[in-house]
Amino acid sequence: MSFELDILHAPPTAILTGELTIMTLGDLQDDLFGLLNFAIVVLDVSQLEELDSCGAQLIALLQQEANQQSKRLRIRTGEESAAQLALSQLGLLPMLTIAGAKDGYQ
After folding, report:
1. Rounded to an integer, what distance in angstroms lies between the CA atom of residue 92 and that of residue 27?
2. 69 with 36: CB under 8 angstroms?
3. Which has the closest alpha carbon to 12: 33, 57, 43, 34?
4. Which one of 12, 59, 60, 99 is CB 3.0 to 4.6 Å from 74, fit for a cystine?
5. What end-to-end distance do the CA atoms of the chain give, in Å?
6. Gyration radius of the chain's alpha carbons
7. pLDDT tens per residue, range 32-74
8. DSSP 8-class letter at 94
9. CA distances from 79 to 40, 76, 83 (A)
10. Domains along the chain?
11. Taking the CB of residue 70, how many other CB atoms lie within 10 A of it?
């Protein structure tokens, strides 16, 4: 698992690779909630190889918290990725603000 934050480009983008599961949540939770320090940020989960229900719930909670704080968190899932599939199967995609490929936002 890897968390990489690019703050040199606008908007700042955090890229998760590997897995976001119950086993890795403890290591990533502080980094992920640290993204709420930005007014606008993209969380790229398109490169995740595994996303379980606990990881998906953390993404949904992060989105909810960003919305409550009037922050603009965009989630980049990638087409046909493990993250897209998991979030869709769990019914969480409609509550997320998905980053579009064309202009960076949808």
Report:
1. 23
2. yes
3. 43
4. 99
5. 27
6. 12
7. 999 999 999 999 999 999 999 999 999 999 999 999 999 999 9
8. G
9. 22, 9, 9
10. 2-95 (3.30.750.24)
11. 7
3-state secondary structure of 5: strand
Counting Cβ atoms within 10 Å, is residue 12 exposed (0-12), middle (13-18) or buried (19+)?
A: middle
Check: CB of residue 49 under 8 Å from CB of residue 19. yes
Structure tokens belonging to residue 77? 């899932």
Residues, the chain, total? 106
* Single-letter amino acid code for the residue at 47: Q
What gap in Å lies between CA 52 and CA 57, rounded to an integer? 9
Q: Please tell me the pTM assigned to this model.
A: 0.89
Return mean pLDDT, the chain.
Answer: 91
CA–CA dist 83, 34 (Å, integer): 21
